[in-house]
Design brief:
By secondary structure, the chain is α+β, with helices and mostly antiparallel strands. The protein has helices spanning 40-51, 123-136, and strands at residues 7-8, 15-16, 57-60, 65-68, 72-78, 83-89, 98-105, 108-115. The protein has a six-stranded antiparallel sheet with strand order 3-4-5-6-8-7. It has a two-stranded antiparallel ribbon with strand order 1-2.
Amino acid sequence: MSGTDLWTCPRCGRTFANRNQSHTCAALGDLDSHFAGADPAVRATFDRILAELGPVDVLAEKSRIALHVRMSFAAFMPRKHWLDGHLVLAREARHPLFRRIQTFSQRNVLHEFRISSPEQIDDAFIALLHEAYEVGQQHHLGRAL
């Protein structure tokens, strides 16, 4: 496996940057079921975020929706009136939507947010979303993939 190849789990078919990556091996669910009972603005907020990104795998897992390229870089938990989620950045960043920041390692900083409508997504949040996408591609590691 070279530095650009992805490992595919033989049981669930998900791809990972690292061979035998630890994960919950489960079938993916239906994306729309995550939004059942939620205000239309919750789905519109999620769709607005997706529209800002390049090619991405949307993984409707049991308890969350993950966005994945070489690795997962964002996750979302739709609620009735808002969208909870997080971005993974390679640094600590500030934004009014961030509710909590957790540092797991020097290049793995989780930024939790809550968004109630697409109008809350400003240019600064979009820039951070793009930065997280680059982390998902592992460009933050200095790899040219």
